[in-house]
TrEMBL record:
Main location: cytoplasm
Protein's recorded name: WD repeat domain-containing protein 83
Per-repeat ranges for WD: 21-62, 63-104, 105-137
GO biological process: mRNA splicing, via spliceosome
Gene Ontology cellular-component terms listed: catalytic step 2 spliceosome; cytoplasm
Length: 317
């Protein structure tokens, strides 16, 4: 006798505050989960980069070597290396365990807003206010980039990398997708300066946030507008947006101290999460669970779903 499939649980959103990290690194410019979601990185306006266990609220290491505020960071797939970028125009490759700088890449003409590893962590990609995306080879000693993508007409604000694509958002109001296998460039005009871009987890869509306080979901292959999400405030700052771990919801920072969640399909506002008094500058969604990191002023908050209990810590935490 076949039993009916259990009804799938409604996706839960992270709205229970489980940790509040006082980062002590000035304003936190960006917060990023590592690949498996066990650790996170915070980028400070005091030139430092910090590695945390957000589940326990413990600081693991501080990385110092930038000459000005750190604006973005990313971890490699095996957690052995970090890359970061900042207002000192440099991109830095770090050894996680020793905290030492492995390489410093110089070549951007202005502050570097965003940084990503490729899948194998052999190349670092960086996007700058100088309107270019540069690709740096981590394994060679060459000081110059292996490739420069300079199609943007204004600063590159955001960058994401999949196994064969580069997605960039620019202040010129365009979302550009470089398909490396086909050697093609696809460009979608949003009309307002783009502050953040990301891929959906299923790889079918791209999401773009822009300074007209609107998020747009685009079909990756056709560029068709699938949905618009409004209600938050984003007119002056570079704020992050992302999709939840199962692509059910869209999340965005806001200048009114909240994080907003929309139902991806219906487009309706599901939750506005009060985070703090100031601008919520950055957010990062856990790769596999309903967990959210938010950064406002000098603090980082870790949110979990209502049903979460502390005993359910993933192994290795």
């Amino acid at each position: 006798m076949a039993f009916p499939e259990p009804k799938p649980k409604k996706p839960e959103l992270p709205k229970k505050l489980v940790q509040n990290l006082e980062c002590k690194q000035g304003a936190v410019r960006a917060v990023r989960f590592n690949v498996d979601g066990n650790y996170c990185l915070t980028c400070g306006s005091d030139k430092s980069l910090k590695l945390w266990n957000p589940h326990k609220g413990t600081l693991l290491k501080t990385y110092s070597g930038h000459g000005y505020e750190v604006l973005d960071a990313a971890g490699s797939f095996d957690n052995s290396q970090l890359c970061s970028c900042g207002a000192d125009k440099t991109v830095v490759l770090w050894d996680v365990a020793s905290g030492q700088v492995i390489r410093k890449f110089r070549g951007h003409a202005g502050k570097v807003n965003c940084v990503q590893f490729n899948e194998e962590a052999t190349v670092i990609l960086s996007g700058s206010i100088d309107s270019s995306v540069r690709c740096w080879d981590c394994r060679s000693r060459r000081p110059d980039p292996i490739q420069i993508l300079d199609e943007a007409k204004d600063g590159v604000s955001s960058l994401k990398v999949s196994d064969y694509e580069i997605l960039s958002g620019s202040v010129d109001g365009r979302v550009r997708r470089y398909d490396l296998r086909a050697g093609e460039l696809y460009s979608d005009y949003v009309g307002s300066p783009v502050t953040s871009v990301c891929f959906s987890k299923d790889g079918q869509c791209t999401l773009a946030a822009s300074l007209d306080s609107t998020l747009r979901l685009l079909d990756k292959d056709t560029g068709e507008l699938l949905g618009e999400y409004t209600g938050h405030k984003n007119t002056a700052y570079k704020l992050d947006c992302c999709l939840s771990e199962k692509d059910t919801h869209i999340a965005s920072c806001s200048e009114d101290g909240k994080v907003y969640f929309w139902d991806l399909v219906e487009g309706s506002l599901t939750l506005s999460l009060p985070v703090g008094r100031g601008v919520v500058q950055s957010l990062s969604f856990h790769p596999s669970e309903p967990g959210l990191l938010t950064a406002t002023e000098g603090h980082v908050q870790f949110w979990r779903e209502e049903s979460h209990t502390a005993e359910e810590q993933p192994p290795g935490c």
